[in-house]
Amino acid sequence: MKFLSLITVLLLLTHLSLFAQTPLITDIAARKTTSLNGAWQYIIDPYGTGYYDYRYQERSQNDRDAYWNTDEQVNKTERKEYRFTDKYTLQVPGDWNSQAEKFLYYEGIVWYKRSFDFTKSNAANKVYLYFGAVNFDADVYFNGKKLGKHKGGFTAFNFEVPDSYLKPTGNYLVVKVDNTRHKDEVPTVNTDWWNYGGITRDVQLVEVPAAFIQDYSLHIKKGASLKTTKNIPVEGWVQLNDWQTTKEVTVEIPELKIKKAFPVTGDKVAVQFNLPAVQLWSPQTPKLYNIVINTGADKIEDKIGFRTIEVVGRQVLLNGKPLFMRGICTHEEIPQLGRRAYSKQDALQLLGWAKELGCNMVRLAHYPHNENMTRTADSLGILVWSEIPVYWTIDFSSGEVFDKARTQLTEMITRDHNRASIIIWSVGNETPVNPLRLVFMRNLIGAARSLDSTRLVSAALEVNYQPGVNKIDDPLGEYVDIVSFNEYLGWYAGLPDKCRTANWEFAYNKPFFISETGAETLGGFHGDSLTRWSEEYQEWYYREQVAMFKRMPDNFAGLSPWILCDFRSPRRNNQTFQEGWNNKGLIDQQGRKKKAFFVLKEYYDERSRTSN
Length: 612
Ligand code: GCB
Fold this sequence. Notes:
The chain has about 600 residues and is an alpha/beta fold. It is built from seven helices and 35 strands. It has three domains: about 20-210, Galactose-binding domain-like (Jelly Rolls, Sandwich), CATH 2.60.120; about 220-305, Immunoglobulins (Immunoglobulin-like); about 320-610, Glycosidases (TIM Barrel), CATH 3.20.20.80.
């Protein structure tokens, strides 16, 4: 028995080390990449036949019935019960649900296959396989060998492809994608959005030199004074995968005529210098500087902005000046096509609409969005709240679930920590008030701060509705930088005129932010303002809300109403007005602006004249 368990432990250890995930390479756009986007063949496998044998044991690596192995018949008599063909293809990136009707509600396993030729541009280079995201589980096989496994539907991951796996021609990549919901995952089984499955973001082969720049961070030193825009201290680090062969790292900002060298004494090289004169990044002036990081063996470039964000007393300060966030929530979804958003074009559409609305901020709900969104936000000058899907009722009692949440937090922050647009990391949404959850969420906040001390940390909380008073007193409020809450006065509780008599009581002397408020309407459906689902009801709702915002105390730091566009949700089953859509968008399923859009716009335009 003892012997057996030792073997099991050893097996487990080899398994873990074989499939240990490679640390994320950031700034992918600056690397030498080969896109694997396009048409991938697929097999829908609801029973997991490609993975399990008939005794429901995981198939062995070389099992010819395992779908990760070659599907070619060795000779005409061989019985092959699976085969990929060009008759069945899915576009990558993209969710499967919107690509064929049979997929609309599908939750389960789909196998993807892509064949390609590939020769390294330099024999000494290392090759990584990079996925922007796969929802939810991805088991990745390269020429029949397992590269690794990743869990989590909204974050990037990469695996090193050993030289011995690569062939100049006829490589094939198989990915088992499984979007089955589980109670012990993040998110859990219950959400208010569509569980789009598939390889939803870009797939690329990334070539890097043997000793390469893994990641870097560059930002204005926390607490630096911005009284003048001269001599502002900048600090950060450059992470190397292999520092032994590198002597020095240089950081260059050509436009500012800065070039600084830093000695390498370990894999994380500390960087600090002063900016002689700089135009700070802000929504009004989203200035990005080209930066170049060079180790001799490797060189990457990026475009980044310099700004500060902090809470001082009851205010949020951007570059030292009070900020009012004119925000809007958005899912990562294109309403007219009922699909996940993934491209730069998609980001321009969503963020362009937010700009039209008069926004200077977006809340990317309820999970990390694709990198085009945060990069486009950088260049358009839109502040960003970025969140992990710790949503509603995940299992707060489980250490494993905590680890999963922390992993997603780490992956989110790692990919995007050089985006000036991101000012808030959110550790969750509408989680229930209880002691276990408090510990869980506090620890996530701690993890966020230790990964990035330069941004604010928050979470969307709920309101404690009491007779005559709406209290914001969730104990988690003590630990966040900005107290955010979702309120639906006039939709889930009473009619919109309820706002007129609302009394708000805040337990914390901190800035507060209304992270959600909204009402549902079917675009194009009209009635009087008392008629639910009519555009007039939603318009009235927004009028009453806006009047209430105007009476809010001085620590009101902004809002991000729910939501920019209508989005798919299987919870929404009024077959006249919803049909599987949550229609709280200010923009409808056809991309048309509803009446309420203009009410919020008027408020935002007015606010933009009076505040930052
Ligand atoms: C909320 C949730 C959001 C929902 C929204 C609604 O409070 O945070 O995910 O979609 O309400 O429409 O009810």
